[in-house]
Structure prediction request, 811 residues.
Amino acid sequence: MRPVVTVVDDDESVRESLPDLLREFGFASRAFASAEEFLTSDSLGETNCLILDVAMPGMTGPELLRELSRRQREIPIVFITAVGDETVRPRLLEKGAVDCLFKPFSEAALLEALNTALRVG
Amino acid sequence: MQNELSSVVDALPAMVWSALPDGRVDFVNRRWCGYVGQAADAAWGDGWQTWIHPDDFPGLLDCWRSILASGAAGEMEARLRRIDGEYRWFVFQVSPRIDASGQVAKWWGINTDIDVRKRAEEAVRAREGRFRSIIEGLPVLVTLHTPAGDVELVNRRVVEYFGATLEEMKGRPGADIYHPDDRPKLIAAWSASIDAGHPYEFEARLRRADGVYRWFQLRAFPLRDAAGQIVLWYLLQIDIDDWKRAEALLAGEKRLLEMVANGDSMSEVLEELCELVESTASGCYCSVVLVDPTGTHLEHGVAPSLPASFITSIVGRPVSMHSGPCGMAAYLNERVVSPDIASEMRWSSHEWCQMALAHGLRACSSTPISSAAGKVLGAFAIYYNEPTTPSTRHQELVEQFTHIASIAIERVQRDAERRLSEEVLGKVRSELARVARVTSLGALTASIAHEVNQPLSGILTNASTCLRMLGADPPNVDGARETARRTIRDGNRASEVVTRLRALFGKKDATTEAMDLNEATREVIALTLSELKRGRVILREELADDLPPVTGDRIQLQQVILNLLLNASDAMSGVEDRPRHLVVKTHREGGDRVRVAVEDVGVGFEPQVADRLFEAFYTTKSGGMGIGLSVSRSIIESHQGRLSAAPNDGPGAIFSFSIPVASDRASGAYGRDAIREAVGPTGEPARGNS
Prediction:
């Protein structure tokens, strides 16, 4: 059974490209445009790793992290963000994120973060 | 024969009488008796004297005696009382009958009534007297000229003014009383007028007895007889010198004030002032020196009619008792007069007197120029080539012009100060504008980074996927093609961001163009969207469909919109109890304006600080510099618009501006200030950190 890596990002190009790459890596992948969509989907139960955008309209990435922890759904999360604010990374790691990647990130960085996440998971 | 003769004499229509050689009357004819209403014997001897008018009697008697003494024929005039008591004028013509020995044997006389003629003559004399008193009473110089133009009669004022009698004036060429500069034109006009018989009007300077020329208005008109022939020319010469001077003075004052208002330099204004006084008060030279701001030295001076060396030797001297009349007048704040510089004992330590004498100056009067507040601004000096004390008229002129000088100096100094402070202010504002843009650019950096990083991320991911798909066995060509397509799309997307940035920050010059404010607003929104999103701002656009184009500088207006959007976002950063709604509206206002409004539900502002929001350095934000709104307001004002703030319904604020729609007028550059503010003092746009 291939690990399921779910992408939640409001940016369409990420939702299009990232699952394709993840599938090339050998994962199963689905993408959602918002945290709310993800929370109400059946992917919630089968996701082994979440690639989560930080800033989104409605519920933000960190808010989804809090929500998941409230629901005691411990899914390893790799944050991705297009905002080059370095201070966000330590705060997210402190809250339990596996990693935080700054867009644009390399294939290698992504793979490394996923490996860590799935090992944790 | 004797009887016959007697009856003839009685019948004559004239009064006939005879007298003895000693003058005693021995006969009067009947007509005489009828006239006086007495018998003949009443007239015999000296009896006739009873009927002579008392006023005429002494003269008549003198005349009669001299005729008697001469023994020759003669005549006398006197009034005789008629029977009814009326006196009538008669001429008494008398001639002697000489006997063989050559002695007067008898005097024969005849009296002829000349009353009508005499009264006509009197009437003429009375008229002439009245005319004379009229022309003497006129407050002008009156001369009567013959039809050929020669002087015939002048009034007393002419005699007084020219210091010459009528006879002297008749004897000399008339032209030399006129100023040489006026003479040729005047003579030509006068001659032409006499030839044509037309009235004549001219202004010329006439030389007074003391050699002073004064301006007169000359008006001549011909007097014609019944046949239309010119019998006389009346020439009225009206002294308009005071009026002329007042007019010149007024024109001069006006010119001076215009110069001051036009911002002409201090030297130009003061030189004009000196020249004006010199031309008004002839025979003098003027100088003006100013006191430096510390009040200790004379710093600036003009003396347009004196050699430059004169004024340069005064400038720089201390304001003191010893620095010559100007330094002393400024020191004492009172007039200093030196009626004879050659015998002047003051100022010797500074050799002022030698210097003045070397320039041919023999007398001087220096008057302090004081500001309205009483501060001494400088000194106005008037110099003469002869030892003299300035006349009252000159002193009055000086008083008048020191007053004008103080107005001019204060105004010019104030203008200079204002210009200087405006320059400083302009520099500060340009600097602020640059800082403000860099600041908003800083706030935008995250947004820009986001906008660029998103597509870059897509590009990298797609490229990685593409390589993997091509490297698979068998290669997934369709998938690779799809990822390559997405790579291109994301590349274009990144490129668009860069284009927008270039549009916003890359333009060289401030330009004006007809533009669509909706489109400009959308571009700014596109750039700020991710920044707004990061601030969890929910943006709603309500852009009117029918928005007419406006004329303006697109980049400047976009910067204002950008500033308002970022401010609105900042104002809502602490809001947690309600959605962070931000509404951007455009709509047409009235017939000729377009309004852009940015509404937020943030912290808003206290009504009492509404006026201060647009002041530079006023801020309510902890990290703000308080520049954006002041710069925004000056941009909008340079677009003939107004930027204003109002409380929103409920929490928050509405910032909006309205500017006129594009007119048919060719659009030109907006105020230089706004352009300077927009592009920085060097004319180069700020380019962020590059």
User: Anything to note?
Assistant: The mean pLDDT of chain A is 90. The interface with chain B takes residues 11, 13-14, 16-18, 20-21, 24, 55-57, 60, 80, 82-85, 102-107 of chain A (CB under 8 Å). Chain A has one domain: 4-120.
